[in-house]
UniProtKB/TrEMBL annotation:
<dbReference type="Pfam" id="PF04647">
    <property type="entry name" value="AgrB"/>
</dbReference>
<feature type="transmembrane region" description="Helical">
    <location>
        <begin position="83"/>
        <end position="101"/>
    </location>
</feature>
<keyword id="KW-0812">Transmembrane</keyword>
<keyword id="KW-1133">Transmembrane helix</keyword>
<dbReference type="GO" id="GO:0006508">
    <property type="term" value="P:proteolysis"/>
</dbReference>
<dbReference type="InterPro" id="IPR006741">
    <property type="entry name" value="AgrB"/>
</dbReference>
<feature type="transmembrane region" description="Helical">
    <location>
        <begin position="48"/>
        <end position="71"/>
    </location>
</feature>
<protein>
    <recommendedName>
        <fullName>Putative AgrB-like protein</fullName>
        <ecNumber>3.4.-.-</ecNumber>
    </recommendedName>
</protein>
<comment type="function">
    <text>May be involved in the proteolytic processing of a quorum sensing system signal molecule precursor.</text>
</comment>
<dbReference type="GO" id="GO:0009372">
    <property type="term" value="P:quorum sensing"/>
</dbReference>
<keyword id="KW-0378">Hydrolase</keyword>
<comment type="similarity">
    <text>Belongs to the AgrB family.</text>
</comment>
<dbReference type="GO" id="GO:0005886">
    <property type="term" value="C:plasma membrane"/>
</dbReference>
<feature type="transmembrane region" description="Helical">
    <location>
        <begin position="170"/>
        <end position="190"/>
    </location>
</feature>
<feature type="transmembrane region" description="Helical">
    <location>
        <begin position="107"/>
        <end position="127"/>
    </location>
</feature>
<keyword id="KW-1003">Cell membrane</keyword>
<feature type="transmembrane region" description="Helical">
    <location>
        <begin position="148"/>
        <end position="164"/>
    </location>
</feature>
Amino acid sequence: MFSLTVPNMAAKITRTIFRDREVDEDRFAIVKYGVEIFLVNVTKGITVYLAAALLGMIWQTLVVHLSYLIVRRHSFGLHAKTSLGCTITSVVMFVVLPYFVRGVQLSGWMIVIISALILLNIAIFSPSDTENMPLFNAQKRHALRRKSIINTFFIIAIVFIVPMQTYKVLILFGCLLQTIMIHPLSYKLLMRRYNNYENV
């Protein structure tokens, strides 16, 4: 229901922003779209962290979420088709799954193997675009891949520095989630088009 009211709220806020000025339709639409994105993200964030608080998972959710976002920043990947779908998926990914994963114990060798697999997949498959945001520029794709690898190296280094087993697992889990989001198999299973820049 909230998702149906977001455009109306965004329109009201945008009208308030331009209250004392005349503005053309295109500029109004651009600002309104930006306000909508902001409202959706705020609502999603509140929902995710409220669910985390109810399960006593604030710190665990934050660790998974930050790890995921740092790797995702330049590697991109799949998006939900609706804001409601995005919110539900986010709660599952950052609250429900970490709730069960947090108690997992990994040996040193398992951590090394998982880290290597994550890094390999990031190096091969990032950045992954979407139908709405195809990455046509080859130079930009190369730069994004390089930054994705650097970000992943940074996160994996933290895994080996952090002494607590729980946080090692949660950091790796956040990276693994993003690896799934850029993998061609995930696109195929969800019947989404992969390498959209090839479809000019």
